[in-house]
Each structure stands twice: as structure tokens, then as C-alpha cells.
Design a protein that fits this description.
Helices cover about 90% and strands about 0% of the residues. By secondary structure, the chain is mainly alpha-helical. It has a single domain, classed as Helix Hairpins (Orthogonal Bundle). Helix 1 runs antiparallel to helix 2 (about 65-149). The longest helix is centred in the C-terminal third of the chain and has 85 residues, at about 65-149. The chain starts with 8 loop residues before the first helix and ends with a helix. The relative contact order is 0.14.
Length: about 150
């Protein structure tokens, strides 16, 4: 019996590998986004702590040097939060890019799988035709020899 071999199997294998790599890139991008969001949340919490301390400093005995240092720390936190917000946006764009690439690779892989399935169906049809022809020839041969004998 004939064996089915898909002529573009090497391409399909490459598509599987590319998809695996794209999935890895996507998960790395997602993990990076989570890390950047956690950093941003940490900075926001630190800023709240400084703001809380600022309120305490104003309520207690006024220590202008400490109040000024606290305000500087708050302004510094605002700058770090802005920078971290940008880092989060970059990570979001990277994640979206990785998602689109993964989607594209998966579509290509699925297309090749469909082509392989169609090629296999064609192979089966051709095999069935050959088997039917062989059966017809056998029946004809048997019938002709039965008449002669």
C-alpha cells in the first residue's frame, strides 16, 4: 500500500517551531508587562506613603527641612511614576506586537495544516480509484477465465 508523504512537511514543521517561539515571546512580553505594572504600583504606594508622611509633618511641629525633603521625594516619585507609566505602555505595545505576530504565525500554520489535509484527501481518493480499478480488473480477469474454463 502506498504511503502518504506531504511534500511541504518541512515547511509545516518550521511553522510549528515558529509558533512555539512566538508563544514563548508572547509569554515573555506578558510577564514583562506584569513586572512593569507591579513596579508602577510599588511606586504609587511609595508616593502615597510620602504624601501621608507630608500630612503628618504639617500637623506636627513644623520641621521645614524635613517637609522640603519630603516634597522633593514626592516630586521625585511623580517623575519615576511618569517614567514607569511609559515603561508600562512600551511593555503593552510589545505584548500587542507579540500577540499579532503569534496570531499571524498560527494562521500560517493552520493554513499549512489545511493544505496537508487536502493533500491527504486527494491521496485517499487516488488510492481508492486505484483500488477500484484493481478490483475491476480482478473481477474482469476472474470472469473471463470462468467463461473460458
Amino acid at each position: 500500500m502506498a504511503k502518504f508523504t506531504y511534500k511541504m512537511q518541512n515547511i509545516l514543521d518550521i511553522k510549528y517551531k515558529l509558533e512555539t517561539q512566538a508563544k514563548t515571546s508572547f509569554s515573555i512580553a506578558a510577564a514583562n508587562l506584569r513586572k512593569e505594572e507591579e513596579k508602577l504600583e510599588g511606586l504609587r504606594q511609595r508616593k502615597k506613603g510620602y504624601e501621608s508622611r507630608a500630612r503628618e509633618l504639617i500637623e506636627d511641629r513644623l520641621d521645614f527641612l524635613e517637609i522640603k525633603a519630603n516634597r522633593t521625594a514626592i516630586e521625585n516619585m511623580k517623575g519615576q511614576i511618569r517614567n514607569q507609566t511609559l515603561a508600562v505602555h512600551v511593555a503593552e505595545r510589545n505584548l500587542e506586537s507579540a500577540r499579532k505576530y503569534l496570531q499571524e504565525i498560527m494562521t500560517e500554520r493552520k493554513t499549512h495544516e489545511i493544505l496537508k489535509d487536502k493533500a491527504f484527501e486527494e491521496f485517499k481518493k487516488e488510492l481508492e480509484k486505484e483500488e477500484s480499478k484493481a478490483v475491476d480488473e480482478l473481477v474482469s480477469f476472474t470472469h473471463n477465465h470462468a467463461i473460458e474454463g
